């Protein structure tokens, strides 16, 4: 027996494993209420949907056996093997979904269309994934081919956007069909309700469901998880009872031989019925898309040990009942319930069907956040609802848009069959695209054999393509809806991405010449007043054109200038030790620096009042580092390029090696959009304005940080003078300078480009959150300069 660890020793591996296991078990419990509500309620309508239409002519035992065999092997191959075993192994540091796969591909094969990427981004610790061995010749050739042709990279982005839009449309359809199917069950009771009354009840439930989303994933999960668990116990028990009571020989239908017999007997009618069979795996994509809200292990535990056995037994039990009751296809689930248990099961089924829409709503939030971080969605407010799981988010604007669209679909269609046709097409399209992206991940990221990826693609495309072809036949009967929704959302995403890229290219080609700046001298031809000016731009090199507007139109400018670029990189998160890149723009006397702040698409971009302080600390550390390693500085003999950038750790203000830090708490104000620091300026005028502004805003406790330079006789006097200038500038105050841009198409542009830029992109910019709000910039310290971009 191993000796026990002594008191005060560090946590043992056994204790760590127990903590990890308990955490994953808790997350697995929560996943029942978020991830599996949709998948677990599919038995309500799969058989009735599959045996409607032309398959009504084949209500016999052989067809029932074949349908169950199809369901069993579909559940085994798609959710179990493809997603749980293979696809969920390709998570991007805990994030899932189509954009997580795209992010992996962009890092391992230069497929990204993001304009401001740097070689330094590839040195991030979270940038590389998987083995670093040399790629096979076949995969290298394919990678070079894709990297060479920009149209192929654009096509890949469009495919990814289409998959993301289909998942958003799925969120609309899931809520509509789940709630409508649940309330329609009331018509089977003695109390008959009119269709108008049922529709009103469904709309009330939908409004309540979306109103609950602001509570956060973990709270919603704890509320909904017991309902789904009770539901799973019910369907497992009922399925087991039906197998034993009605037809134990149904176990023979596990053989795929019955699938061959099914298609041999039903022919084209059986192929068309696949549109109903595929409803048995709807909600599967949510397992992967919701990965950021949980962990891969927790979702796998829940599916393998609970969801999969319960669903298989339930579908087998329904098939056993139908094989002996061939006139009960229209309401097979409720008809198979033993009479004494009908009402308890009916109540739980209604609640579980309502919960079923939660999975895709949650997945939609994750997808939208990833799209926004990668430059493919307008700025929206992202609320992080958990301190422990960063992926648990809530997006108010998207929540209410989903609610309006869901109500419109519910009121417009009023038929679960039509919505089911649209629902199946949306789900299968997303799975088809995920299979394609996963094939590329196998080659480029996992660096496996090209033929292995080809086998994966062909095998799962054969299964999903068969189902997709059947679903496409339902386009006239409601299947057009997800296509229409996807086109609308994809236009929004692509127009935003296109406009953002064109705006960046304009900035890139209209940079201010450094020779012109150097020709002005260290005073820039104007008065340099105490203070720090943070000039925000999307450029990672050069001086933005906004700078020339200030120099030529203002009589004074700040003593210390920092060009700040806040950008997203295609990684889930960036370590605080690697977040800041600091460099010098001009020679030392100019006091001009560059700061690039890097965030991953999973990072929390919140201002806790420390950004200014971390920035000053980082610049001070860079000045000290530059004195030791001069190669980081700009060369006065070749001033046409910026100096080299250095990664500065920003984990904690108190960890500064150059400055002495003193702190004290003080009261500051905060509103819903931004946080205003009481130390932003020492100006009496600004302080009086601030006191007037604070009258109507709530107070919070903040930290006031003061920097001091410790005595060090060995420090270079030039370095000491520069550090003192930085400290004095911080004490004088910080101003945030941004361009208030108007983007217009050039006069000689095509009609489509004018339509996209002048109408589409301009509308999106006017109606999304402003950049100053998204970056949490204090309004009282903000200076905006009007800029017109002709792109």
TrEMBL record:
Keyword list, A-Z: Ion transport, Membrane, Potassium, Potassium transport, Transmembrane, Transmembrane helix, Transport
Record bears the keyword Secreted: no
Transmembrane segment boundaries: 63-85, 152-173, 193-212, 224-246, 270-289, 301-321, 341-368, 389-411, 423-445, 450-473, 479-496, 516-536
InterPro entries: K+_transporter, K_trans_C, K_trans_N
Name of a matching Pfam family: K_trans_C
Chain ranges of the K+ potassium transporter C-terminal domain: 530-789
Any one GO CC term of the record: plasma membrane
Membrane-topology annotation of the record: Multi-pass membrane protein
Compartment(s) of residence: Cell membrane; Membrane
K+ potassium transporter integral membrane domain mapped to chain residues: 27-517
Main localization (coarse): membrane
Signal peptide segment: none
Example GO molecular function: potassium ion transmembrane transporter activity
Family according to the record: Belongs to the HAK/KUP transporter (TC 2.A.72.3) family.
Function description: Potassium transporter.
NCBIfam families cross-referenced by the UniProt entry: kup
Name of the molecule in the record: Potassium transporter
């Amino acid at each position: 027996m191993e000796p026990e660890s002594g008191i005060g020793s560090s946590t043992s591996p056994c204790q760590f494993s127990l903590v990890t296991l308990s955490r994953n078990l808790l997350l697995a419990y929560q996943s029942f209420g978020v991830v599996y509500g949709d998948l677990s309620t599919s038995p309500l309508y799969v058989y009735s949907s599959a045996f409607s239409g032309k398959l009504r002519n084949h209500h016999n035992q052989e067809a029932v056996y074949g349908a169950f065999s199809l369901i069993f092997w579909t559940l085994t191959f798609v959710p179990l093997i493809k997603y749980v075993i293979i696809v969920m192994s390709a998570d991007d540091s805990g994030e899932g979904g189509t954009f997580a796969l795209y992010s992996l591909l962009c890092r391992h094969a230069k497929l990204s269309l993001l304009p401001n990427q740097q070689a330094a981004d590839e040195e991030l610790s979270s940038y590389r994934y998987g083995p670093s061995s040399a790629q096979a010749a076949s995969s290298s050739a394919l990678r070079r081919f894709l990297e060479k042709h920009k149209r192929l990279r654009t096509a890949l982005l469009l495919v990814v956007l289409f998959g993301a839009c289909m998942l958003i449309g799925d969120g609309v359809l899931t809520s509509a069909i789940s709630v409508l199917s649940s309330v329609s069950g009331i018509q089977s009771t003695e109390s008959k309700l009119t269709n108008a009354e049922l529709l009103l009840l469904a709309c009330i439930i939908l409004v309540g469901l979306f109103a609950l989303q602001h509570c956060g994933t973990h709270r919603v999960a704890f509320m909904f998880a017991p309902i789904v668990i009770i539901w799973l116990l019910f369907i497992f028990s009922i399925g087991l009872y039906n197998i034993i009571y009605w037809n134990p020989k149904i176990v023979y239908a596990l053989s795929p031989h019955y699938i061959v017999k099914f298609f041999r007997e039903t022919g084209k009618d059986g192929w068309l019925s696949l549109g109903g069979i595929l409803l048995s795996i709807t909600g599967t994509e949510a397992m992967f898309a919701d990965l950021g809200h949980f962990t891969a292990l927790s979702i796998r535990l829940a599916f393998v040990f609970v969801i999969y056995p319960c669903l298989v037994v339930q579908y087998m039990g329904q098939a056993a009942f139908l094989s002996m009751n061939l006139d009960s296809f229209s309401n097979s689930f409720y008809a198979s319930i033993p009479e004494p248990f009908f009402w308890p099961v009916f109540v739980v089924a209604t609640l579980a069907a309502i919960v079923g829409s939660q999975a895709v709503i949650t997945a939609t939030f994750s997808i939208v956040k990833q799209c926004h971080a990668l430059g493919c969605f307008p700025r929206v407010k992202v609320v992080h609802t958990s301190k422990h799981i960063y992926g648990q988010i809530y997006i108010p604007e998207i929540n209410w848009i989903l609610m309006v669209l869901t109500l419109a679909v519910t009121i417009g269609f009023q038929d679960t069959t039509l919505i089911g046709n649209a629902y199946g097409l949306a789900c299968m399209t997303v799975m088809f695209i995920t299979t394609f992206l996963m094939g590329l991940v196998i080659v480029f990221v996992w660096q496996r054999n090209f033929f292995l990826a080809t086998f994966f693609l062909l095998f799962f495309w054969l299964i999903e393509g068969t189902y997709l072809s059947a679903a496409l036949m339902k386009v006239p009967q409601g299947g057009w809806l997800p296509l229409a929704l996807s086109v609308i959302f994809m236009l929004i995403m692509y127009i935003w991405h296109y406009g953002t890229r064109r705006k960046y290219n304009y900035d890139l080609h209209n940079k201010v010449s450094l020779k012109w700046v150097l020709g002005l001298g260290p005073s820039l031809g104007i008065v340099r007043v105490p203070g720090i000016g943070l000039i925000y731009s999307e450029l990672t090199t050069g001086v933005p054109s906004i700078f020339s507007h200030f120099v030529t139109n203002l009589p004074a400018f700040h003593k210390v200038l920092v060009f700040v670029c806040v950008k997203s990189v295609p990684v889930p998160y960036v370590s605080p030790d690697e977040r800041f890149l600091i460099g010098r723009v001009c020679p030392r006397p100019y006091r001009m620096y560059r700061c690039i702040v890097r965030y991953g698409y999973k990072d929390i971009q919140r201002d806790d009042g420390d950004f200014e302080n971390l920035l000053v600390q980082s610049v001070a550390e860079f000045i000290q580092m530059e004195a030791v390693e001069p190669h980081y500085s700009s060369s006065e003999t070749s001033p046409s390029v910026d100096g080299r950038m250095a990664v500065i750790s920003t984990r904690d203000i108190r960890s500064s090696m150059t400055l002495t830090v003193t702190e004290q708490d003080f009261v500051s104000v905060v509103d819903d959009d931004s946080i205003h620091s009481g130390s932003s300026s020492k100006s009496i005028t600004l302080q009086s304005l601030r006191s007037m502004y604070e009258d109507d805003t709530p107070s919070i406790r903040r930290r006031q940080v003061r920097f001091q330079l410790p005595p060090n006789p060995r420090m270079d006097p030039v370095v000491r003078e520069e550090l003192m200038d930085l400290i004095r500038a911080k004490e004088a105050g910080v101003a945030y300078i941004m361009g208030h841009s108007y983007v217009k198409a050039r006069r000689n542009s095509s009609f489509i480009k004018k339509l996209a830029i002048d109408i589409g992109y301009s509308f999106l910019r006017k109606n999304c959150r402003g950049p100053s709000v998204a970056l949490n910039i204090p309004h009282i310290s903000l200076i905006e300069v009007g800029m017109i971009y002709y792109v």
